[in-house]
């Protein structure tokens, strides 16, 4: 997921630091970021909340609802 990595890089975090702050395992975070594995909606929301971006922006490349627009 290119945008997830871009957001992590923007904050100057390692994958481990981001995973710890979000509350997911390092291995799951690494696989999500590299596109090897999708993640649950719950984890998508946790990641989006952490980066203060919408789920649509981070995972689908666009806002997917009007509500998403207010998050980003």
Produce the secondary structure layout.
Layout: H1 2-11, H2 15-22, H3 26-33, H4 41-51, H5 55-60, H6 66-71
Helix pairs in contact: 2-3
Q: Can you give a write-up of this model?
A:
With 72 residues, the protein is mostly helical. It has one domain (2-71): lambda repressor-like DNA-binding domains (434 Repressor (Amino-terminal Domain), Orthogonal Bundle), CATH 1.10.260.40. The protein has helices at residues 2-11, 15-22, 26-33, 41-51, 55-60, 66-71. The longest helix is centred in the middle third of the chain and has 11 residues, at 41-51. The chain starts with a helix and ends with a helix. The mean pLDDT is 86.
Total number of helical segments? 6
Class based on secondary structure composition and strand pairing: mainly alpha
Rg over alpha carbons: 11 Å
CATH fold-level name: 434 Repressor (Amino-terminal Domain)
Please give the largest β-sheet: none
Q: What is the 3D form? A: globular
Mean model confidence by pLDDT: 86
Low-pLDDT runs of 5+ residues are none
CATH architecture: Orthogonal Bundle
Task: Give a brief rundown of this model.
This protein has 72 residues and is mostly helical. It has helices at 2-11, 15-22, 26-33, 41-51, 55-60, 66-71.
